[in-house]
Design brief:
Chain lengths: ~300, ~170
């Protein structure tokens, strides 16, 4: 069985797949990157950068760029994000955006957050994959001038699968850490979070009686299990064809609920954009499936002459 | 043995795939032990709170709160984000207490090292109160590196920041 799994994994790594659907992820990543960069760009307009206040790099040898160069890079990333969205020099634009987002993420420990790391992973994926397919300026230019080849839309499956692994790892790592934490699994953490938001929810128009039922310790005890199992289900369910559709639906509901109840910056939008990765990508160069041993249906035979 | 079709690229694909997977799993496991959790993906890990009172300790041992109006700087202009700009207010430690205190300790060091107009302070000291997932409060004292201060100061070297004491201010967890 292990040998069979290894053989299938090995075959999958070398397979060629069509990823033209990832153009939609590319188009979404541009605005998401801009949304992420916006506060840094706004500060730069006020001549303020991270250098003006507390910052501490992740490692002491991390290069500290001069302020004008740092600001120029931020704006370069913004321009690259626009190019990424419209699909002009898509992979280069993704690489530039990813590079600047990565530099900015690690330049100070105060800049790090999970949603930014997740965005970086997706941008790196966009730089590694042929995401420039239509609708894109590259594809349009390719059609207008026959001499120019259009952007490729096929790639090796292992890059797609590696990116899928990274996305699934986010949910599995988060779910597992909560599963083994008695405070999370027992509902304490969730109850305290909900308690914090009770007055806010009432002020937003939810009936107090409903909010109090939701904040009830028993509800929270069950709610915590629902959250943990939801994350684990997403991380596993996305992999299997039979559960993928349900997992995608759960992803949407899960992230919309997080977006409504917490400040997670670009996490929701990045997670929704990443769903494009789970469109099935059968191997284009796989051998044809074996012919059935018996006819599925009996064909009408020609009448004897 | 490299068989037919198993050239450098064939191996490179497998090696890169394996390295990324192992690196990611390592970061996930590391997140259980490290105060900072890059790529560990532990979202909403706690529902803990914290607050801190910061004093400036001068070379003669005098202790002055940073908000008593005598300091040449304002903490909130020096430290931003993650709730660190208003340590005197009880905050939710969104990334967990370990992570928040690690960052807050680094902020103390940074402020101590980047306030040249302050010629009095030898180091900053913060008395931090934490509430881990709603439990009874605990108190931790964080101290910045010692500063290179005015010429009158005998101390000229910087020391590593230290957690000087930990006391349970309430019932056991």
């Amino acid at each position: 069985m292990i040998a069979d799994l290894a053989r299938r994994w090995s075959a999958r790594i070398d397979a060629t797949v069509d990823v033209r659907h990832l153009a939609w992820m590319r188009m979404a990543l541009g605005p998401i990157a801009l949304l992420h960069l916006a506060p840094f760009l706004r500060d730069s307009l006020d001549a303020t950068t991270y250098l003006d206040s507390f910052h501490v790099p992740n490692v002491s040898w991390y290069p500290q760029l001069p302020e004008p160069l740092y600001v120029a890079l931020l704006w370069l990333a913004a321009a690259a994000a626009v190019l990424l969205t419209v699909g002009l020099l898509s992979r280069l634009a993704a690489a530039v955006t990813a590079g600047v987002v990565a530099y900015n993420l690690f330049v100070s420990q105060a800049h790090y957050s999970t949603n930014r790391a997740f965005l970086l992973i997706l941008l790196l994926g966009a730089a590694a994959l042929p995401v420039g397919g239509a609708p894109s300026v590259d594809a349009w230019l390719g059609r207008r001038r026959d001499r120019l080849p259009g952007p490729g839309t096929t790639t090796r499956a292992w890059i797609v699968d590696l990116l899928r692994f990274e996305v699934a790892a986010v949910y599995l790592a988060s779910g597992f850490s909560k599963l083994i934490d008695p405070d999370w699994w027992g509902g304490t953490v969730l109850a305290l979070r909900v308690e914090r938001g009770v007055e806010e929810a009432v002020a937003a128009g939810l009936p107090r009686s409903l909010v109090e039922v939701l904040a009830d310790p028993t509800t929270m005890w069950w709610g915590a299990k629902l959250v943990v199992l939801t994350e684990l289900f997403i991380g596993l369910g996305l992999w299997f064809p039979r559960t993928r559709r349900a997992a995608v639906l759960v992803v949407v509901l899960f992230h919309v609920s997080i977006q409504v109840t917490a400040d997670v910056e670009v996490f929701t939008w990045a997670a929704l954009a990443a769903l494009a990765l789970w469109v099935p990508t059968p191997a284009l160069d796989a051998p044809a499936p074996p012919a059935p041993r018996w006819p599925a249906r009996s064909r009408p035979r020609p009448a004897p002459a | 043995m490299i068989g037919p079709g198993r050239g450098g690229r064939w191996w490179a694909r497998r090696v890169v795939f394996a390295v990324v997977v192992v690196a990611q799993l390592t970061l996930v496991v590391r997140a259980y032990h490290a105060p900072q959790r890059p790529f560990g993906f532990q979202m909403f890990p706690e529902s803990s709170d914290w607050r801190a009172d910061i004093v400036r300790v001068s070379t003669d041992g005098e202790r002055r709160p940073i908000d008593d109006g005598t300091w040449e700087y304002r903490w909130s202009e020096l430290v931003r984000g993650h709730g660190l700009d208003r340590p005197d207010v009880r905050h939710h430690a969104s990334a967990g207490l370990d992570s928040t205190l690690h960052l807050f300790g680094a902020a103390l060091d940074w402020v101590a090292a980047n306030t040249p107009r302050d010629e009095q302070t030898l180091y900053l000291e913060a008395t931090v109160t934490t509430w881990h997932n709603g439990r009874a409060p605990r108190t931790v004292v964080l101290r910045s590196d010692e500063r290179v201060t005015a010429p009158t100061t005998s101390t000229t070297t910087r020391t590593a920041s230290t957690t000087t004491s930990t006391t349970a201010a309430g019932a056991a967890r």
